[in-house]
Amino acid sequence: MSGPNTSFDPKQVSSLNAAAVEAMVSDAMAAILAAVDLADLKDVRLAHAGDRSALALANREIGALPPAAKADAGKRVGEARAAVKAALEDRQTALEGERDERVLAEESVDVTLPAVREQVGGRHPLTTLMERVCDVFVAMGYDIAEGPEVEAEWVNFDALNVPPDHPARTMQDTFYVTASDSGVVLRTQTSPIQIRAMLDRPLPIYVVAPGRVFRTDELDATHTPVFHQVEGLAVDENITMADLKGTLDHFAQEMFGEGIVTRLRPSYFPFTEPSAELDVQCFVCRGASVGNPDQACRTCGSEGWIEWGGCGMVNPRVLQAVGIDSEKYRGFAFGMGIERTLMFRNGVTDMRDMVEGDVRFTRAFGLES
Ligand code: DAH
């Protein structure tokens, strides 16, 4: 190892003379000022203050100087490096500030701009109405029952005491699956769910059954080949027609408003005996329009009553068909159309509006839960 070279003159080490160090500093300062962003500045820092920068290399030369020269050169290079470091820090702070401002500006949100609204649909009113019907009966302790839309002819007709020669079974009304003698139909009513409920469930039975039904009708303002019904069935000991009437009155009030009652008119259905047509009191005029031309009512046609469905006491022959002791048990049943209910309840005048799927129709009911 050789000792320090005492004859060494720092003025002759070109990288350590004042002019050279000044030039390194001014190079560095120019580069620092020219850095336009933080990535640029990173490169500048490496080039002018990094281990291999001119100033770092000059610093290394100091060690080799004679002691007399060391202090002078050390001070010069030290000050130069400190100045460059300070300038780098200033520029770093300035560029970070610029970046933050730019990001704030770019990411700012103008809350006064009109929003792009998502197109939302509405649940179909038939769906919400059926749910509402179910809620009314579930609150009274009923179960919800279901059945298949493709149904055995026996369940859809025979078990319900609809004889083979009944006009409803002809090709005009019923969609047969494959051939007319296939024994399989698209259910024409929700009443077959009564049969399935009685076959499947233990007694007593209290069920409500909404569902889609099918008939060979042309689509027009008052008919649609696919529509919905809701069926009710109660089978228990000591059931009477008074229970049926009370249940229907409660149902009518829940659907149409307080105080609305029902009316039963004698009728005929094969699966009930006695049977009745079920009318609901007009919830708009409450009968005030009857015989009163000044107060004509569009909802009930000034009849005071609106035809709502059918009902009756379950025919003992139906109970027998499903193996229920008709001496011990009795039942009541009712069924009504959901489309028809929606029509007079919500003033829908054309059934086609319900099936065409135009969102402008459903959206009008969109707020109904
Ligand atoms: N299923 C009948 C129809 O589609 C409606 C009906 C009438 C259902 C009387 C019943 C009832 O449960 O007891 O026309």
Automatic annotation (TrEMBL):
It catalyses: tRNA(Phe) + L-phenylalanine + ATP = L-phenylalanyl-tRNA(Phe) + AMP + diphosphate + H(+). Its cofactor is Mg(2+). It is found in: Cytoplasm. GO terms for molecular function: ATP binding; metal ion binding; phenylalanine-tRNA ligase activity; tRNA binding. Residues 127-343 form the Aminoacyl-transfer RNA synthetases class-II family profile domain. One of its GO terms (cellular component) is cytoplasm. Keywords: Aminoacyl-tRNA synthetase, ATP-binding, Cytoplasm, Ligase, Magnesium, Metal-binding, Nucleotide-binding, Protein biosynthesis. One of its GO terms (biological process) is phenylalanyl-tRNA aminoacylation. Its EC number is 6.1.1.20. Pfam families: Phe_tRNA-synt_N, tRNA-synt_2d. PROSITE patterns: AA_TRNA_LIGASE_II. It is an enzyme of class 6 (ligase). Tetramer of two alpha and two beta subunits. Belongs to the class-II aminoacyl-tRNA synthetase family. Phe-tRNA synthetase alpha subunit type 1 subfamily. This is Phenylalanine--tRNA ligase alpha subunit. It comes from freshwater metagenome.
